[in-house]
Amino acid sequence: MEYYHSPDTIQDAFSIAEKCDGNFIYFAGGTDVQIYRKQNLDKNDHIIDLSSIHDLNSISLKDGNLTLGAMTSLGDIITSNKIQNKYPLLVEAAKSVATPVIRKTATIGGNILVRNRCTFYNQSQEWRNGVGSCLRDVGDICQVTGGKNDCYSRNVSDTAAALIALNAEITLLNSAGVSQQPLKDIFLPCGIKFHDLGNDNILTQISVSMKPKRWWYKKLRLRKTLDFTSLTVAATIDINNIARICLNGVSMTPILIEEPLETLTLENLIKQARKNCKTVDNDLMPLKYRREMINVFLEEWWEYEHRK
Q1: Stated pTM of the model
Q2: Which domains occur in the chain, in start order?
Q3: For 124-131, what is the mean pLDDT?
Q4: How far is Cα 229 from Cα 221, in angstroms, rounded to an integer?
């Protein structure tokens, strides 16, 4: 049986969640969650919709520091003059997500926390019954690798890659209080448990204080719209000439490479990326091509950064 809840405050959301005894899911824009429920991949009885909590929907730019409420839509981010002028990398990443209609509903918090994907898992119940289930569902092996220990479903958040390159921090709230941490620290290198949030935390805010001198962004996908990423690369150079290059879509978690630009070499950059990205054949694009495109994207960024 399914129960729908629409709290007006965060405290109301916590109260409802406590009564659900773990059998619930927080619902932001819902553009991804609804598909999971349709495919019988999310079976929680209780849906706690956060869209009526207006405190979570805001854009603030003070002294050059950007603060976003987690329920801010991607569409609002794209059209915000404040963000366009100061953080165009984030605008570019938001524009690359899905379609204009979806972006009007999809939220920045929801996109950051989008669930990992795999072509053998994100299918209908009937398809999974025919092919055989997997570690992440009810099976005992990975359908991609044949292994019994690890799931390699891949993180596909485009905005997470951009925000990690911008060294963003997040605010988490639970019934015990507030905590802040770097965004990159909430991602786990696991295809089954991919976020280190705890069951009772709500992501309330994203903060960016870094002011990059230069930025670069590119996304690989089958079509120029709608599709989840097969490879996203977001890069920044800060005022101290530190390069932050974040790759996503090719591993269980976003992969960050951070190093002074003066000591970084293209050869070492590619070597680090290929070593740290646990890329397997779980995407619509062929594995060999996706691995080759890691090199291509990093070479393009390198040429962009050094053509001055």
Answers
A1: 0.97
A2: 1-53 (3.30.43.10), 54-208 (3.30.465.10), 214-306 (3.30.390.50)
A3: 94
A4: 5
